[in-house]
Amino acid sequence: MSDPGGETAGRDRVRAHIVSVAAALLTSGGRDALSTRAVAAAAGTQAPTIYRLFGDKEGLLDAVAEFGFTSYLRDKKARPLAGDPVEELRAGWDLHVGFGLANPALFSLMYGDPQPGRQSPASAVAFRILGERIRDIAAAGRLKVGERLAADLVHSAGTGVVFTLLAMPEERRDMRLSEAARDAAIAAVTTDAPAVETPGPAAAAVALRATLPDATALTDGERHVLGEWLDRLAAGPPTN
User: What is the pLDDT of residues 77-103, one digit of tens each?
Assistant: First the structure.
């Protein structure tokens, strides 16, 4: 009599073992060490097993990135909340940069080969967490640009800082670069006081847009239409 549950558990164990071995190879030898043949040999298995479990090499790389991100996200979620959404964003930046410097090969795997329309499940989760922090700032009335622009700006600035620091000899790395870039990025998207106290519809639209998902009195269609209007208001008047 077959045991589907046991087969699934066994498959999961093999998959986890291969990912762990691949992550160790990545740390010791960089991305070039992650050939299918090398991973299979180190894991004590055959290449067809890797293809069966991961589909192709890109699937294996995604799994390794997700494995690395899991520890990153665990640390990120375990941090005590600062209470102030802007301070929480600042803490998230510091953790992001610290993770990249401590795990250069893994960070390069996750961010060093961007492809339009393709994002690993783990990095998508991380970006969603960043989006949630941006939304908290917007809901507090302290975001002065649209949520997507704010998230993209903070993400690109933070990732760029990591790669810039990684390109330097360790003895030349000056963390004041990260601090200055962090403060500049946050200043570019936030205000010290709630933006809704400033006259004009744009700031009010940003704050209302952040809480729109909670407007359960509206239908999905109504929220969608209102969201488009608020996005237009938040963008400000068109420039000639």
Answer: 656 566 789 999 999 899 889 989 988
Q: How many CB atoms lie within 10 A of CB 175?
A: 13
Question: What is the number of domains present in the chain?
Answer: 2
Half-sphere exposure of residue 154: CA atoms within 13 angstroms, side-chain side: 32
> Domain residues for 86?
68-235
Question: Cα(45)–Cα(18) distance, rounded to whole angstroms?
Answer: 9
- Is 37 within 8 Å of 47 (Cβ atoms)? yes
Name the residue among 180, 183, 97, 195 with its Cα closest to residue 137.
Answer: 195
Please report, for the domain that includes residue 100, its CATH number.
1.10.357
The pTM (predicted TM-score) of the whole model is: 0.72
Reported as a pLDDT band with limits 50, 70 and 90, residue 199 is: very low
DSSP string, 193-240: S-GGGSSSHHHHHHHHHHHGGG-TTS-HHHHHHHHHHHHHHHH-SPP-
pLDDT of residue 43: 92
Whether 35 and 129 map to the same domain: the answer is: no
Report whether 150 contacts 189 (CB < 8 A): yes
Residue 125 counted as domain residue: yes
The span from the CA of 115 to the CA of 102, in Å, is 24
